[in-house]
Specification:
Strand order of the largest sheet: 2-1-3
Structural class: mainly alpha
Number of helices: 30
Radius of gyration: 35 Å
Helix content: 40-55%
Shape: elongated
Distance between the termini: 71 Å
Number of strands: 10
Largest sheet: 3 strands, mixed
């Protein structure tokens, strides 16, 4: 078996038991033929095809055949024959033992102590176990040992009882039937490739029974065949560079999106994306590897260096989970790749950590902080992730062109420049404007909200050395300070419209905190102060308000601030004020984009600015814009046209279900620059009392309404 072959993977349920069942069936049919004195030769089991390349015959040596496909079944047959031979020996079937041993061993003295004493010699990762099994060494828990154990028990059972089908036969009859089945009644189609056959293509096409090839198996096959043509030391490649990938950790299937894939295939896809700066589909991993790697496999030393870099990056990939949470790398991995599930950023992460690129630590930290902030801010503003895979490639290309000592700065600049809705990096003003009144609980997964609240807590602790250095428990739960069920004890006679606004406001970030599960159950819907809790006995702690319980049982700085600043009441105004404070804190934890790098939105066509330029947007231009605007952009323009020339703020847009108008307007700005060059922006904006307002002119609104009605 050549070095590129994968390790032995067959198991009892899927392969060993069905194979033995087939052997028993044929042996029983053979006994039946004998008992009825028939010789029709009908009893037989077909094992499939084996593909190999034969070497030249050498005088005094065995003829060698390199297996291209069929490794699993051929290895299994050798283990099976060894197990049956051992069982035959225990039942004193000497003739059968001799016959079976001839099928697995080359008995000439000149082969003693050499690999050539075996009829089959496996690839490197299985050799130790194979030699131990075939020579009677001490067993272990290797799959080959388990296979030998299974077939040994099955063979002894057959020889001693014959099962239900062969009980009436004698021991000698059962032994002869089993030996004859193995020697003469198991059929294989053997395909011996000529020099003109494409062994790689055949290897890709054929799979073993019930165990499909991984993309990594195809890659390894191709690499070692290329190495053989270069006269490289492929055995050294196997030991130093590839054997590790045959370990269970790499071949274990883990969740990736909606699919289960092996870690080695996932790594190869990410690594190829990083190397090629192009999207690589999972089903195209092997072909992409050949395209990317072919130029590096033209020289033996060059190829070795290339494979060493792959292995080095693989080692880094495997150690991701070991990165310290207090490092920029560990923080990014746990927050962005794991918690936000933005695994498409892994190629960028790997590029920044790779020994090949050698990015300075300060630049790596700068780049990771920028990408983490971009990810967290967009998550908090409920922005789409549908284009992130393509954007990751854009970022990789920018990094590939930049000097490594400026990698972090370049990554931050490119992120800051984005204006498209699917790529924009929200500014401090945009984030604070959005979070001041946005419903986040219910629209953002709770584990992600816990991440943000936990990071805010850590930030508060880091402000003073007086605070204890602690690690927050994993199982803290989100608590609504003003409860979701506020009507039970917090009802203040609100009218229906005010009640609807409160229902929304209790889910904003200013009303959320962290508590233990036990405390969460006790807090429930109880009122804030003890005075308001008089007579309350549900949930234990009769007569005690939520503030008192938090004070007794919570050590979080996040909660201490609540208690200190609000001794008597917790109101909607308090929620909004805390939302803004939390938003500002989040902005300091995850600093935003460089505003000077982002293309500005040009104010135009409002009653305040740009008057006299309305004629630039004639009816045909407005119609073209209307035909090209859909989704959030169209909805925002519809609303602005309906109230022109007055302006609307984020809060007013949100009241009609448009959560992020600023993102839509950023997308509009990019659309105008790309498809309507020379024309001014149709939207004007101004800041009033700390809030942004957007508007369109009355004339544009008329033309827009006419265009949308067609």
């Amino acid at each position: 078996m050549p070095p590129y072959q994968r390790p032995y993977v067959w198991n009892e349920e899927n392969q060993w038991a069905p194979l033995w069942s087939d052997i028993e069936r044929v042996a029983c049919e053979l006994l039946e033929e004998k008992s009825e004195q028939r010789s029709d030769g009908g009893a037989r089991h077909f094992l499939g095809a084996v593909v190999y390349e034969s070497g030249s015959a050498v005088t005094g040596d065995v003829t060698r055949h390199t297996v291209i496909d069929g490794q699993q079944r051929m290895t299994t047959l050798q283990i099976l024959i060894r197990a049956v031979s051992q069982a035959m020996r225990e039942f004193d079937q000497a003739e059968m033992v001799e016959m079976l041993d001839e099928l697995i061993m080359n008995s000439s003295r000149r082969f003693l102590g050499k690999p050539t004493r075996f009829k089959l010699y496996p690839s490197h990762s299985d050799r130790g176990a194979f030699e131990r099994v075939m020579t009677g060494g001490n067993p272990s828990d290797h799959r080959l040992d388990l296979a030998f154990r299974f077939f040994s028990v099955a063979a002894r059972d057959w020889l001693s009882t014959g099962g239900e089908s062969a009980q009436s036969a004698s021991l000698d009859q059962r032994a002869n039937a089993l030996g004859a089945t193995i020697q003469d009644r198991l059929s294989l189609v053997s395909i011996d490739l000529s020099g003109n056959d494409d062994a790689q293509l055949i290897f890709e096409t054929l799979n073993d029974r019930g165990t499909p090839l991984l993309k990594a198996d195809l890659v390894k096959n191709w690499v070692f065949r290329e190495g053989a043509q270069l006269n490289a030391d492929v055995d050294d490649w196997a030991v130093r560079l590839s054997d590790e990938f045959d370990q269970p950790w790499w071949r274990e299937e883990v969740q990736q999106g909606r699919l289960m894939r092996s870690r080695i295939d996932i790594f190869l896809q990410y690594w190829l994306t990083m190397k090629s700066c192009a999207e690589v589909r999972s089903d195209d991993t092997f072909r992409a590897f050949v395209r990317q790697s072919k130029p590096f496999m033209a020289d033996r030393d060059f190829a070795t260096s290339y494979l060493e870099s792959l292995r080095s990056d693989a080692d880094i990939f495997r150690r991701f989970a070991e990165l310290g949470s207090d490092t920029p790398e560990g923080s990014f991995y746990r927050r962005v790749i794991e918690r936000l599930e933005l695994s498409v950023t892994t190629p960028i992460f790997l590029w920044l950590l790779s020994e090949t690129t050698k990015v300075p630590a300060d630049q790596r930290s700068l780049g990771l902080a920028a990408l983490e902030s971009w990810s967290v801010r967009r998550m908090l503003m409920r922005m789409t992730t549908k284009d992130v895979n393509k954007f990751a490639v854009v970022l990789l290309r920018a990094l590939a062109k930049a000097p490594v000592n400026q990698a972090g700065s370049v990554l931050r600049r490119v992120l800051s420049e984005q204006t498209a809705v699917s790529r924009v990096w929200p500014t401090d003003a945009e984030l604070q404007d959005d979070l001041s009144d946005a419903k986040v609980y219910g629209n953002i997964r709770q584990d992600r909200l816990r991440l943000v609240l936990g990071t805010v807590e850590q930030s508060l602790r880091d402000e003073s050395a007086m605070h204890e250095s602690i690690t927050l428990p994993e199982r803290l739960q989100i608590e609504h300070v003003m409860p979701q069920g506020w009507r039970a004890y917090w009802d203040e006679g609100l009218d229906p419209e005010a009640a609807v606004k409160r229902d929304r406001r209790v889910h904003s970030i200013g009303n959320l905190t962290l508590v233990t599960q036990a405390l969460n159950g006790s807090l429930s819907n109880r009122p804030w102060s003890d005075a308001m809790a008089q007579g309350l006995d549900k949930g234990g702690h009769p007569g005690e308000g939520k503030r008192t319980l938090l004070n007794q049982f919570s050590l979080l700085v996040l909660n201490k601030e609540l208690l200190d600043d609000h001794p008597d009441r917790w109101t909607e105004d308090d929620i909004r004020a805390r939302s803004l404070a939390m938003a500002k804190r989040i902005c300091s934890i995850w600093p935003g984009p460089d505003l000077e790098a982002r293309p500005s939105i040009t104010p135009a066509l409002s009653g305040r600015e740009g008057r006299g330029r309305d004629d630039l947007w004639d009816a045909s231009s407005v119609q073209a814009l209307a035909d090209d605007c859909s989704g959030a952009i169209g909805a925002v323009l519809d609303q602005l046209a309906a109230i022109a020339p007055e302006g609307w703020s984020t809060v007013e847009f949100q009241s009609v279900g448009i959560a992020s108008p600023h993102s839509a307007l950023g997308g509009l700005s990019a659309k105008l620059a790309a498809k309507f060059p020379g024309l001014p922006n149709v939207v004007a904006f101004e800041k009033r009392s700390g809030q942004w307002f957007w508007s369109v002119s009355t004339d544009f609104a008329k033309r827009w309404a006419a265009a949308r009605s067609r």
